[in-house]
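User: Predict structure, ligand cyclohexylformamide.
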Amino acid sequence: MPRAAVCPGIDQPLEVVDVDLDAPKAGEVLVRMGASGVCHSDLSVQNGTLLAPLPSVLGHEGAGIVESVGEGVSSVKEGDHVVLSFVPQCGACYFCAHDQPQLCETGFLPMATGSLLDLTPRFSRGGSPLNQMSALGTFSEQLVTLEMSMVKIDSDIPLSSAALIGCGVLTGFGAAVNTASIRRGDSVAVIGCGGVGLNVIQGAVHAGAERIIAVDMFDAKLDMARAFGATDVVNPSSGDATDQVRELTAGRGVDVAFEVIGLKSTTEQAFAMARRGGQAVIVGVPKMEQILEIPIAMELLVNEKQVRGCWYGSSDVRRDIPQLISLYQSGSLKLDELISRRIGLEEVNEAFRAMEAGEVARSVIEYDL
Ligand code: CXF
Ligand code: ZN
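Assistant: Predicted complex:
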């Protein structure tokens, strides 16, 4: 019986309890978790910003060790170390075959409904089903998920560092490297320098951006942003952020502006910070009902600006996870530095508080193996 952090309903604290876990069915894998990051989207499910069926075991960013496999599983075996993907990628549907596996059709319903391919979860408590966030539920000592939701990695990578790849790193790094068309020498702005924004910054460095302007209300986050490669920092509390970014770019605005918070106001800022012909890339997760208004004639036509959505850093997990691991091994990708606090599962509610207060980039839950 694994211990897991369950969100019983909107605005209720997570309960850390023993839960029941069914054996893996065909195409499924039982994973003993090594570590799970605590991401802002977990908090967004708890406070109702992100709609997900509750009650649910939260957590969607993790790494662990395969304990057993269901019928027909061939890409992993007992003892393999794996990074979990919050988007199942089947490799066979229309989107997977058209180089957009981040939009995988097969995985969409399990991801959105917190279940597996038969649309039931493997967790339960007292005989009632418990959903698993993004077909995972990494706030649990063990979980059962789809073979297509994991990628094998070398067993010498620390699982706490590998865990972060599953959401924050793929999303942020991928936004810069896959979604945006950054060219060598470009200028970029990154609004929001938490666990995902810092990865946009390191992705922008990797893509060859020359000017990387970090924007955040917290000076401590701006210090971290510099350590991750930002060349300039802007704190909106010392003057309008858009004006400051324009001043730093000869009045033109940046080639690419990334919104990594999920607010209407900062999305509008990202759009305003982009130069004529530039891009605003939307990475932050807003409220479901949020609408964006854009002046079509001046901004889309005359100024030829683009707004790009970015889901999971437009990542192909089977291509990108091995690449990120090798960048980490060669010292060109910071993972350990993203970890602000290492905690036990029981401290998850405190980790939510610290995240909301802007005190941490990432808290990581470490499980006893
Ligand atoms: C989220 C988006 C909603 C489902 C879980 C993951 N993205 C990043 O945190
Ligand atoms: Zn996340």
